[in-house]
């Protein structure tokens, strides 16, 4: 097990290097730092001095790969590639445009993101599986038909409308919870109830439909027929046999997103003013803070790769037929 | 007045896509298995109904894709043989059709069917003094003059005549269809039987569902023609633009994003996917590595990074674009490309897996044993047998992309702010719910249009998948 995880981690390294190269190419080769400076400074304030100052402030005044002016190992380390790209592997992301340390900011914001994403994830999974089970229990009936229609209709609504509509209805019209904001500690609950509920509802449509197909696939297996043949009631068959086996594809399918929960949700966080990583990213995009966007891309990829490894491990935990080699 | 045709890049690709679609139809008619699969699509009521609605949207999108620059009136004192000057504003055929909606701009918000502005304004009374009143709209219900009390009766009359007209046209279409169906039935006893089969929904293709949907589309269209030139049926937005006009213009953007994204990524995904699956070895390793890397970056972040960089490129090269529309169009196309780059990996992996299976089948091995070249095998034996996966991916991705456009535009990494799209509409409308009194119609219009479009795309995609996926039949 340990050797396997270690090997997977080693496999992950080339992927991370690839991600790093892609972001480096996107941010420094497609455009020169001069172009970025011009873009961010705006048309009016562009002077050669201003561009130079902008680059020095952010450490973009070095050559890309090879610094002929430096001495010894400095020829390699005093470059944009080393300072901005390779340093990410030590989780050193430098400073944002407002002067704060990006890594520190990320640590601070992970808490609120997780406080929103974790309940959403657990409740969402529970709601969708329950809904799908009900549909499967009443399969080939009107309830099933209209349930699926409801799912398709729900997944045809943009998540923006769920958020805007929910905020308007619950916060403004009924005034049950604050429209937006956040407070640390247990106080956070009253700010988080609505965003969690909205995220769960917005996801139920597509998830429940997907789980329903998984259940239906499982229900046509031989062991289900055997279970029925030996006289088990439909409820026992469904909840004890089918549910257990169908959870294998469902669980392994959702494990990959668990690490990504740290990243938070862009839309919900920005609408509800929750100071998590999602709203951090949106603010960075709007302010064109390239350093923050670059750091988020890197962190996101790391978390995704962690998710892939967890998926492989979870297969062996829930499905004894799969063995790690 | 003359005009200068403008061919935007997205227009070119959109028409290319339509040409490919037409060629596919010709191809399908010749191949029995494909014809049978499409017949399965047509035999499902939800397939026919959603196809009708999608075709209606497509018609709007196509009309909106003929762009031109109108000629400016000759200035006084200009030389006789001076070259014609063209406006820098790029219009489309749809803009011409909707000219009354486009040009009749009010001052600010007005509710649907309103004859007055939504907010009070202080006006100078003719006899001196001031009053806070709701000013009369410049265009909304202007044919009523001062008799704004007759608005409800006028609207009701227009709706009645509109529905009646729509029904007449619809009955004519039904009659034509009955004649055609009766001709098709070889041993049938003519019209009556054909009509009865149609009424009971017993025709081979689900014509009844199609006709009912068509009736709805027709009623909506004719009501729009009757009402929209005289009232703002969905109200006006903050700068007084007609919301119905904005909604119709958004349709093209949504269609372009939904279809071109898949089109631009298709050659890569197909070529790399079947090459990785068929050739194996280091080619497979390299291709797998590339798509794993791209997959590892969370989609939104990759899109954000790429769009930010593309914005820099576009902003630093203003000389590439002669009009603002061309610049906005370049950004739309770039967004399609970026979305394509982030989303081709899924299709590529599916194709690789399918090709791995196909490679071991007898007919491919026989071809190899006969000495058929690798490229010929890929083209003749592998490609046609993975096309159903491509088609399913194409229709399945559409609705997701339309939804993604709205979210991305909201985040600020979507289409150009001057491009009319559902995302920009929602973005502008979201602050309006907090207003007192509330302005709800922009959001409602965007919601209604998007919901109908995405819902019919989802239904259609399901039917296509059921018909073409061998595991589901």
From TrEMBL, chain A:
Which SUPFAM superfamilies does this one have? MetI-like
| Pfam families from the UniProt entry | BPD_transp_1 (PF00528), BPD_transp_1_N (PF19300)
Q: Where is it localised?
A: Cell membrane
Which residue spans traverse the membrane? 9-30, 116-138, 145-169, 189-211, 248-272, 292-318
* Listed Gene3D superfamilies: MetI-like (1.10.3720.10)
Q: Would I find Cell membrane among this entry's keywords?
A: yes
Keyword entries, A-Z: Cell membrane, Membrane, Transmembrane, Transmembrane helix, Transport
- Lineage, top-rank taxon, reads Bacteria
Q: Where is the ABC transmembrane type-1 domain?
A: 110-314
Q: Which family does it belong to?
A: Belongs to the binding-protein-dependent transport system permease family.
Q: What is this protein called?
A: ABC transporter permease subunit
Q: Which organism is it from?
A: Aromatoleum toluolicum
From TrEMBL, chain B:
- InterPro entries with a match to the protein in the record: BP-dependent_transpt_permease (IPR050366), MetI-like (IPR000515), MetI-like_sf (IPR035906)
A Pfam family (short name) is BPD_transp_1
Looking up CDD domains in the UniProt record yields:
TM_PBP2
Residue limits of the ABC transmembrane type-1 domain? 251-461
Report the subcellular localization.
Answer: Cell membrane
TM annotation in the entry: 6-26, 47-68, 159-182, 205-225, 254-277, 289-312, 332-351, 389-413, 438-461
Judging by the UniProt lineage, the source's domain of life is: Bacteria
Topology term for the membrane: Multi-pass membrane protein
Protein keywords: Cell membrane, Membrane, Peptide transport, Protein transport, Transmembrane, Transmembrane helix, Transport
SUPFAM superfamilies the record matches: MetI-like (SSF161098)
The family assignment reads:
Belongs to the binding-protein-dependent transport system permease family.
Could you tell me what this protein is called? ABC transporter permease subunit
What organism is recorded for this protein? Answer: Aromatoleum toluolicum
């Amino acid at each position: 097990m340990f050797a396997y995880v270690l090997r997977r981690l080693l496999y992950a390294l080339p992927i991370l290097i690839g991600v790093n190269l892609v972001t480096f190419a996107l941010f420094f080769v497609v455009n020169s730092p001069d172009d970025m400076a011009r873009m961010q400074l705006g048309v009016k304030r562009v002077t050669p001095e201003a561009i130079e100052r902008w680059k020095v402030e952010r450490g973009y005044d070095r050559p890309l790969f090879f610094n002929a002016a430096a001495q010894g190992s400095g020829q390699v380390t005093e470059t944009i590639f080393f300072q901005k790209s390779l340093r990410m592997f030590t989780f050193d992301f430098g400073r944002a445009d407002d002067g704060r340390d990006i890594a520190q900011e990320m640590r601070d914001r992970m808490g609120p993101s997780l406080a929103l994403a974790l309940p959403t994830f657990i409740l969402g999974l529970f709601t969708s599986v329950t809904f799908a089970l009900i549909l499967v229990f009443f399969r080939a009936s009107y309830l099933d038909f209209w349930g699926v229609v409801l799912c398709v209709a729900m997944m045809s609504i943009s998540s923006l409308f769920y958020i805007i509509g929910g905020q308007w209805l619950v916060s403004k019209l009924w005034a049950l919870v604050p429209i937006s904001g956040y407070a640390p500690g247990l106080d956070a609950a009253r700010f988080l109830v609505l965003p969690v509920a909205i995220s769960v509802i917005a996801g139920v449509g597509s998830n429940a439909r997907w789980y329903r197909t998984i259940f239906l696939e499982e229900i046509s297996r031989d062991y289900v027929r055997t279970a029925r043949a030996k006289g088990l009631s439909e409820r026992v068959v469904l909840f004890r046999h089918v549910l257990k086996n169908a959870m294998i594809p469902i669980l392994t399918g959702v494990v990959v997103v668990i690490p990504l929960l740290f990243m938070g949700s862009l839309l919900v966080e920005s609408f509800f003013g929750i100071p998590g990583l999602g709203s951090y990213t949106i603010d960075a995009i709007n302010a064109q803070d390239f350093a923050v966007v670059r750091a988020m891309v890197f962190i996101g990829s790391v978390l995704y790769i962690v998710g892939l490894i967890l998926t492989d491990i979870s297969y062996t935990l829930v499905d004894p037929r799969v063995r790690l080699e | 007045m003359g005009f200068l045709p403008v061919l935007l890049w997205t227009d070119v690709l959109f028409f290319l896509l339509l040409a490919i679609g037409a060629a596919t139809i010709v191809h399908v008619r010749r191949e029995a298995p494909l014809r049978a699969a499409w017949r399965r699509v047509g035999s499902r009521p939800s397939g026919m109904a959603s196809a009708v609605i999608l075709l209606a949207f497509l018609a709007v999108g196509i009309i909106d894709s003929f762009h031109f620059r109108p000629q400016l009136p000759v200035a006084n004192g200009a030389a006789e043989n001076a070259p014609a000057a063209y406006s820098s504003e790029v219009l489309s055929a749809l803009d011409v059709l909707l000219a009354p909606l486009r040009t009749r701009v009010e001052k600010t918000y007005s509710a649907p069917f309103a004859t007055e502005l939504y907010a009070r304004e202080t006006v100078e009374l003719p006899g001196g003094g001031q009053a806070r009143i709701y000013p009369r709209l410049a265009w909304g219900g202007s044919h009523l003059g001062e008799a704004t009390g007759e608005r409800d009766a006028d609207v009701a009359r227009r709706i009645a005549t509109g529905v009646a007209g729509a029904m007449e046209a619809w009955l004519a279409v039904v009659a034509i269809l009955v004649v055609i169906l009766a001709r098709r039935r070889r041993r049938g006893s003519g019209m009556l039987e054909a009509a009865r089969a149609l009424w009971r929904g017993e025709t081979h293709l689900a014509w009844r569902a199609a006709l009912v949907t068509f009736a709805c589309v027709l009623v909506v269209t004719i009501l729009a023609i009757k009402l929209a030139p005289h009232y703002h049926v969905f109200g006006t937005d903050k700068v007084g633009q007609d919301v119905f006009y904005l909604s119709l213009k958004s349709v093209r953007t949504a269609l372009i994003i939904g279809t071109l994204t898949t089109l631009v990524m298709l050659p890569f995904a197909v070529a790399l996917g079947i090459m990785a699956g068929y050739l194996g070895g280091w080619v497979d390793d390299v291709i797998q590595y590339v798509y794993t890397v791209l997959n590892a970056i969370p989609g939104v972040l990759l899109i954000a990074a790429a769009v930010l960089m593309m914005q820099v490129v576009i902003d630093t090269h203003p000389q590439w674009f002669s009009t603002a529309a061309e610049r906005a169009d370049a950004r739309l196309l770039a967004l399609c490309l970026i979305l394509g780059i982030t989303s081709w990996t899924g299709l590529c992996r599916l194709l690789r897996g399918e090709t791995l299976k196909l490679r071991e089948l007898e007919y491919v091995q026989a071809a190899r044993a006969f000495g058929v070249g690798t490229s010929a095998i890929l083209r003749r034996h592998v490609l046609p047998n993975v096309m159903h996966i491509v088609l399913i991916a194409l229709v399945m991705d559409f609705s997701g992309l339309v939804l993604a456009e709205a979210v991305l535009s909201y985040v600020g990494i979507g289409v150009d702010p001057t491009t009319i799209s559902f995302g920009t509409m929602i973005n502008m409308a979201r602050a309006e719910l907090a207003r007192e009194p509330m302005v709800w119609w922009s959001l409602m219009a965007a919601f209604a249009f998007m919901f109908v479009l995405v819902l019919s795309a989802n239904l259609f995609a399901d039917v296509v998948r059921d018909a073409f996926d061998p595991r589901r039949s």
